[in-house]
Amino acid sequence: MNKFYFLLVLCILFSCKKETLKVPVKKAVRPPALILTDERKVQIDTALLNTFKSETLIQFYLSSENKTVWGNLKKRTYVLSLLKKSDELGLNPDDYKIKALEKFEKKISSLSDTDLANYDTLLTYNFELYLTHLYKGKLDPKKLYADWDLEEKTFDVNTALVKAFNKDKLDSLAENCQSKSYTYKQLLAALKIIDTYPDDSDIKKIESPDKTKITLNDTSSALINIKKRLLFWKDMSGRKDSLTEIYDQKTFESVKKFQERHGLAADGVIGVGTISALNFSKNKRKEQIIANLERWRWYTNELAENYFIINIPNYSLNVVEKQDTTLVRNIVVGTSKRKTPIITSKLRTIVFNPTWTVPPTILKEDVVPEMKRNRNYLSKKNITIYDSAGNAVEPAAWNENNPGKYRYVQSPGYNNSLGVMKILFPNHHSVYLHDTNHRNYFGRNNRSLSSGCVRIENPLELAEHVLDSSDVSVSWPKEKIDSIIETKKTISVKIRKKYALYQWYWTAWSKKNQLIFRADIYNLDSDLYSKLRD
């Protein structure tokens, strides 16, 4: 019997051991071997590498058999110069311990083996950190925002660095890590432009004028500082010592130029929005540019061949095909309370004559209060209430104490909340692009008015364009689409051409050597900048 138990225990131990052998072990990817020259090299202690708490750094030095790698003066000083002038790319040199690195460099010839190892690892760690920040930003948007749905960017910084090191192409490494998009490059240009402006601390804040608005030929004490701001930003030319309190024609034209650069109604009327934009200091505008550079590093580095790109604060949608902008549309986006989410996705389907199911937020905040006041509220909007069995419920029988147990569906038609079409794409936020029954909204300057989805001006022209280019075997003329709309029947059409969707957020860029800004409608810029400099 004892032998039996002994054999049983052995079997159990053997089976457990066998089971553990099946557990896969994730191995770190070793970078290629580094090609080292004959400059001074010292061994790096593993304990030193462990102090950085970076698996990436440990793997990097495996490629040099744990020997120092930055003996070459040209390579070393080039890396130091990049870190020192990282502010030219909107980064913070203090993030890369530049002062400590420069102290080591000044006494490089007299460094002990221990100090040389310290210098080498510190330089590698901070250069890789710099490259990573250039590639995908310093901060993680998923940790900052619940409604940002971007593809995660992965970066094998070791392999990139080793290849550039071995081929002696460190000078192109930083450039290759950055976005190739036009907007990103225009943001870098904007950073250079704003650095050419002088200090503006002597220009006082513009106080609210006596009148709500200042119009042509008005007189106001606020105009002195308004003119100083216009001169500072080069929207107006002239001398500061000749400024008056009269709103003359020259100032009027300058105000319109300023308004256009800031996405305001370029009517020359100086109201709250114009004064708010004028009161931004040079430093605040520079911080805004830096915050936008960080956001663009979160976005994909390589845009698709064909795509829709939406800039939420600019209320604009551009269709780009093979690097050519083929259509531009005004849009309406979500309010600050019901923000339009940031999304990278792919277009899938166009739905003509869609129904609209009232979403939970609108049900709670809009529909339920209105229904309690007037039971016919939904019927006037052509919305039918359905119970869990799919049966229509009369408004009089609606249970106001349990509104969530029903579905609320609006029938297709010109006055449907989604208008006469919508475009679907995979996302986790139940949003889409669509027409609207509030078509007058597109005439407004501030179009942060929706409940989160993006509304498109003249959407049927967009549908015609997309479907015509999607399927060469089937034509989609305007007459065909119009006839579908007239039926008021819901029809779904697959988009066969591959279009990416970039629904993004940026409030600054440059154009023809001019700085362009938009109102930060979701109040993201200042908070992001402060986190970047923490």
UniProtKB/TrEMBL annotation:
Keywords: Cell shape, Cell wall biogenesis/degradation, Peptidoglycan synthesis, Transferase. Pfam families: PG_binding_1, Scaffold, YkuD. Pathway: Cell wall biogenesis; peptidoglycan biosynthesis. It comes from the Bacteria. CDD domains: YkuD_like. The keyword Disulfide bond does not apply. InterPro entries: LD-transpeptidase_YkuD-like (IPR052905), LD_TPept_cat_dom (IPR005490), LD_TPept_scaffold_dom (IPR045380), Peptidoglycan-bd-like (IPR002477), PGBD-like_sf (IPR036365), PGBDSf (IPR036366), Transpep_catalytic_dom (IPR038063). Residues 306-475 form the L,D-TPase catalytic domain. The active site is at H434, C453. The keyword Transferase applies. Belongs to the YkuD family. This is L,D-transpeptidase family protein. The lineage of its organism: Bacteria, Pseudomonadati, Bacteroidota, Flavobacteriia, Flavobacteriales.
